[in-house]
Every structure is written in structure tokens, then in C-alpha cells.
Write the C-alpha cells for this entry.
Amino acid sequence: MVADRGLILAMLQEGGFVSGAEIGQRLGVSRAMVSREIGVLVAAGCRVEAVTGRGYHLLALPDAPLPDVMAALWHGRFAFPVRFYPEVPSTMQVAGEWARAGAPAGATVVTDHQTAGRGRRGRRWQDPPGEALLASIVLRPRLEAAAAGWLPLAVAVGAARAVARATGIAPGIKWPNDLLHEGRKLAGILVELTLDERDVRYAVAGLGLNVHQTSFPEEIADRASSLRQALGYRGTRAELMAALVPYVLEAVEELEQEPARLQAAWRAQSVSLGRVVEIRGVQGVARGLAVDVDEIGRIVLEGAAGERQAYAAGEISLG
């Protein structure tokens, strides 16, 4: 028998000392098992003070978004399943397999380091171990395939809201779904869809969010930043993920039920609209004033002669 470590942490998070007898009574296990389970939590990175006659006092949770830590942070509000890997080729790949096996919405794969992480257009995602929040979330949106183009933008709105909750500062969104602060990239988002003939069966949203980095490789140092560098964030990746998953699911639900409201939220945080931009895609380079995003998520550019053209994909540069 194994005690519920998430519940143990949730009890310790209530503050002060909690006796082993009280924990054991609530979980229906012995004090010896409580002691063993707390030892497991300490080995995982939790800082717990133990004082004879008083019990246990939680000093700090670990930075890593471990399943037991997430269960404690979500206790009484959410119950999203989490799989954590110290290292994995790609969270998108693992989460996609989990989704095909029936994982529910909100199921999340997270890692300290990806060896084959992917960005848009096949780029390799660079991440020093333990510095970024690297997570892929299973989504099961109730959307027709024709409306799925807005899904990546909805994920960006949810992620931006989570960052604002954690730091007090809302990042901008570069079409379709990069998060920026003062022109530097904080996060990249990749959404992969699996469609039926008419509907979205499921989707996986992969997020690479720069959290603790204080420096970047020379080739990206002038265009990348982290929550610590840009916004002074001193919290943990676990606390950030505790906000990220529910906010992303909330934004997806908003897209399902109140698409105009979600679309207005994206436009309000956009750093692309109203600016002259370049889009590099398979058909070459297009340049124009970004005037809107249409009903299927394409960005609309207006040329010098007033002509308008919508683009569904491409690498956008802000002028």
C-alpha cells in the first residue's frame, strides 16, 4: 500500500506543523508509512522539516512539476494526470501516444530536458536541463474541423493568462502563438491536431516556456528572454504549470462556447496586428500591414495597393 503523496503535500501546504498521526489518520495509514512517504518526497526535492513532538513542516516544494507536487498544488480544484520524465526525446510524441490511448483533456507530459524537441517548421527546440517548462497538454476540444485554425491561438491566450497570473505582467502574442516581452520570445507553442471528417478528435499542445534562464546561446541571445530575465519571476516551474494547464483548458472552452470573446482576447494581446510584417512560407515572402485574423485563424495582410491576402502558415517577422 502506498499513501497519497499529493494529499500529504496538500496537508503540509496548509501551513505550520502537521503531526504524523494526523496525516496517517486522514489517509488511513500508519505513522511509519507516513514517515516513509515523506522520505520519498524529500528525495524528490521537497524541503520538509521534521521536529519530534510537533510533526512535519513544509519549507519548500521542488522546482520540477512532479506528479505528486502537481496533485498537491491542484488539490481540491483539479485532478489532471501528469507524467514527468527527467529526459525524453519529445513531450509531443509521448503525449500524442497517450492521447491515442485515451488520455483525458488536461493530461500533461512534462520533462526537464528534451533531446529531440520540435518547434514550428521542424526546428529543434533548445533547452538547458531544468531551466524551461517543457510540457505537452492533451486537448479534446468540441470543435468542427473548419474552426480548428483558432485552436493554436486559443492555447496562446491561455498560456499568456497563466504567465500574467504568475508574474503580474501579460506577455504579447505574436501570430499565431509565440509569447513575447519587449520583442523577445518567452515561449513557443506547437499544436498538432487529429481530425475526423468533420470534427477535431483530439489535439496536443506543446509549450516551451523559458523560465529560469539568465543567458542564451549567442545566435538567439538578441531575440530570446525568460520569465526570470524579463519579468523577475522567482517562483517554480511547478507553480507555473499549476496555472498553465487550467488556463489553457479554460481558453479552449472559451473558443468552443464564446469564440468571439476568445478572438477578442487574442486581438487585444496581439503584437502583430497594426504593424507591417513579413511572412516567409512555402510560396516565398509576403509583406504587408497585418490588419486582422480571419474566422479560421489566418492572418490577413494588406498590401500597398490596398489588396488583402490571408495566410494560414509561415514565419512572421515584425517590422
Notes: The chain has a mean pLDDT of 92. The two ends are 60 Å apart (CA to CA). The domain at 276-318 is CATH 2.30.30.100 (SH3 type barrels.). The chain has nine helices and 14 strands.
